[in-house]
């Protein structure tokens, strides 16, 4: 059997050849586990008592809330600073730290507004799903709601110029729920994802208010060429639209008009007018 020293040297040699090492210094890439830990603390601030094992009462709620805010501020500021240094190579560490701290504090300040929006999403699920018995059941058990919540957190960081970290958050919840929402997408209020597995919402998608999606829906791009970066590649879904399971809607110029219904397994690369119903063509045997 080869000795440990030899095996260690071969692995270290691969680090030199192929890179992909993430040290702990500020100039390194953000740490995924730290980002996810901060994300879980944010989730537990939005739904206290639902997202982690803790005993809450009227006496300790203030203390626990303050403790989590301090922890989020410390951990997420450090990881955001790393992301900004990586993006702005050559920028001063102090500048990136100040920007990171300001952005993270703005996110914490935004939590009441995120809570307002996510409670509208909860209501949309409660109103739209006959199987739902209570808001609490939805908060505890609906993967679609959890994916929307993480999207709303990641989207705030994305639009405020934080690189990398929003994608870490969105891909973490993608792996957990099977729901892939790019943090760059623009999604309105009262959004309901039912079942959810296999849903894909691309980076430049725009979704209005009171929209409902079922499992397997893809809001994607016609072309996946790199030249399409920073261009509108994904569809626009206007208010009050329902899209049933397995539908695929592609293209940056494709608009699904207000109040429309898109049936299951429909393939669309063209716009449909408001109030329309689109169903998949059926073959006669």
Q: Can you describe what's shown?
A:
Helix content is 46%, strand content 11%. The protein is α/β, with parallel strands linked by helices and 285 residues long. A five-stranded parallel sheet has the order 1-4-7-10-13. The chain has a five-stranded parallel sheet with strand order 3-6-9-12-14. Strands 2-5-8-11 form a four-stranded parallel sheet, with no helix packed on it. Helix 2 packs antiparallel against helix 3 (61-87) and helix 3 packs across helix 4. The longest helix has 36 residues, at 93-128. It is globular, with a radius of gyration of 22 Å. The model has no long low-confidence stretch (mean pLDDT 92).
Question: What keyword list fits this structure?
Answer:
alpha/beta, globular, five-stranded parallel β-sheet, 14 strands, about 280 residues, 7 helices, about 45% helix
């Amino acid at each position: 059997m080869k000795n440990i020293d030899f095996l260690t040297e071969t692995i270290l040699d691969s680090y030199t050849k192929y890179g992909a090492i993430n040290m702990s210094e500020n100039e390194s890439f953000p740490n995924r586990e730290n980002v996810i830990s901060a994300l879980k603390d944010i989730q537990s601030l939005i739904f206290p008592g639902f997202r982690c094992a803790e005993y809450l009462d009227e006496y300790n709620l203030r203390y626990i809330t303050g403790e989590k805010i301090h922890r989020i501020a410390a951990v997420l500021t450090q990881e955001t600073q790393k992301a900004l240094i990586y993006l702005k190579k050559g920028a001063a560490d102090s500048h990136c730290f100040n920007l990171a701290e300001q952005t993270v504090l703005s996110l914490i300040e935004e939590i009441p507004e995120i809570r307002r929006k996510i409670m509208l999403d909860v209501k949309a699920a409660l109103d739209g799903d006959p199987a739902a018995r209570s808001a609490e059941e939805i908060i505890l058990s609906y993967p679609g709601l959890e994916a929307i919540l993480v999207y709303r957190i990641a989207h705030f960081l994305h639009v405020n110029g934080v690189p990398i970290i929003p994608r870490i958050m969105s891909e973490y919840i993608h792996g957990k729920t099977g729901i892939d929402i790019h943090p760059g997408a623009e999604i309105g209020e009262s959004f309901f994802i039912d079942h959810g597995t296999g849903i894909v919402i691309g980076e430049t998608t725009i979704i209005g208010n009171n929209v409902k999606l079922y499992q397997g829906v893809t809001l994607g791009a016609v072309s996946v060429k790199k030249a399409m970066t920073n261009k509108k590649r994904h569809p626009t879904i206007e208010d009050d639209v329902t899209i049933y399971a397995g539908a695929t809607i592609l293209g940056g110029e494709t608009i699904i008009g207000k109040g429309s219904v898109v049936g299951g397994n429909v393939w669309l690369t063209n716009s449909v007018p408001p109030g329309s119903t689109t169903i998949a063509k059926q073959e006669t045997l």
